[in-house]
Amino acid sequence: MDPDAVRDRAGDLPAEPGVYQFLARESRGRSASGGDAGSGDSGDGSAGAVPTGTGPVEGDTDLAETDSYERVLYVGKAVDLRDRVRSYADPRSERIRRMVAEAESVEVAVTDTETQALLLEANLIKRHRPRYNVRLKDDKSYPLVQLTDHEFPRVEITRDPDPGATVFGPFTDKGRLETVVKAVRETYGLRGCSDHKFENRDRPCLDHDIGLCSAPCVPETDVDREAYVGDAEAVERFFEGETGALADPIRREMEAAAGDQHFERAANLRDRLDAVEAIHGEAGDAVASEGRHEDAERERAVDVLGVAVEGERATVARLHSEDGKLVDRERHTLDAPEGERAGAVLAAFIAQFYAERELPDAVLCSDHPDDADLETWLEREGVALRVPGAGREATLVDLALKNARRRDRRDDEGRALADALGLDSRVERIEGFDVSHAQGKSAVGSDVTFVDGEPEKSDYRRKKLDDENDDYANMRSLVRWRADRAVSGRDERPDPDLLLIDGGEGQLGAARDALDAAGWDVPAVALAKDEELVVTPTGVYDWPDDAGHLHLLQRARDEAHRFAVQYHQTLRDDVSTVLDDIDGIGPETRKRLLRRFGSVENVRSASREELETVDGVGARTAATLAERL
After folding, report:
1. Is 0.70 topped by the overall pTM?
2. In the predicted model, is pLDDT for residue 289 greater than 60?
């Protein structure tokens, strides 16, 4: 775009808060999984919208309608979209000048507040990984809530909304959001299951038994579609800001429970009501804005951030202290466009890192974050932001800087592994796969993630496989499942630098067949247990026992094995059948037990006195339950 085109586009934009995206057109030939880093996690290179605020996004152009072959170059936020976009007619740096010259269009999404613009910007950067933004690797985006457009809509928390869904958010407090969505489902009975589960039920599932779902999936519940859709519309009104749509029925139920002297139930409902009434925050915002602590004088939790920028890579070291004691330290890598200042890197890190983590009471930085909106958000959240110049705090910042600048063992392992396998760049992210079954029964697969040599447990996945006594077929099915999700953009995790298969040539061959069939271009190797040989498509390596890069593969392989075996054992030990077979426990009593305690595990841990409070459970039945479970 030339300066005149930028000015003309800016003149059409509203003078309101929001997010803008500079886009460039892609050729039609690009595969769904390929492309440069700017194509984003969605895999299709599109600039799809992530709605924000307390309802669907208002925008000059609906971002969800952007051409599938338009690529996001840059995402930014603004208090005034018109003024901010107009400023790009005279770019402030050579990097931004190149970006504007490459761009062909600008699309925007209007938000209710500057804070929502900040959160939406972080979400879009995570999703599309635009080339000209600072991007924190392997981190989470802010959670959203979606109501799907099915015949019987599904309500769920997501970071990657379905096409056609009505989406609300972003939200900063995921724990509170989970409480609210559970309250929504208990009050209105909306389903939360996947399409596959919904379409293949022949009887109600556990969610129905414990009162979370009306079970529209089966005829026996005789759920009226018009009534169900009416309930979904009430949920939509709640997330659009009508708090009473959910708060009023919870309050009535709480008062009834208290009147019946069911005080534990009333207390639970009170806590749920607090979460529901707080979810919109002050003035209807869809982000939590209350202070962190009533005692503002005391900073119990403090994060110290130091940043080092080297070329197009930046490292942020984070030291975490609680009550004056240093309790944790970690390092994070970011993609930083050439010439990006340390302050801009820190601003991007803070917004993206705290996407769903609890904010500390104070953040100490080596450089001042280059973002006034970020400072406003932190201030609203009750978080102090300081750049200390002397004293103990300055010493901590110096320590964080030293950690950011050092090269550690894990860095060397990733580089050595890339060199040994002939890969172009350091291996930072590994996904390990293994399958487990008992002669074909209860077959499962694991998919674990290691980042910089350490397990990233929030990115672990597991899958129940078809019962088949064939390790190769099971591995092929597991890897194909992961590959299909990556190619279609349904997996929110970034593509790994390497896939590690637990096994030998046969398992690796099965995995590569799955990758080829799905069209997912990711390098894969296998590690056999007996002789610790590394199997690749071009040969077999016998690395020294003390090689650090071999140890890295062994850790990922062993963790994938542990996670698969653990899941397999869980499926084999299906305690729900024990509950079903206990004398005196019929279907209705089973429902009451699960509704009261929430799960079979909680029934197992309940005392006999607690069991006897459930209608239909007497002393004899309680004793039998305690013995059998």
Report:
1. no
2. no
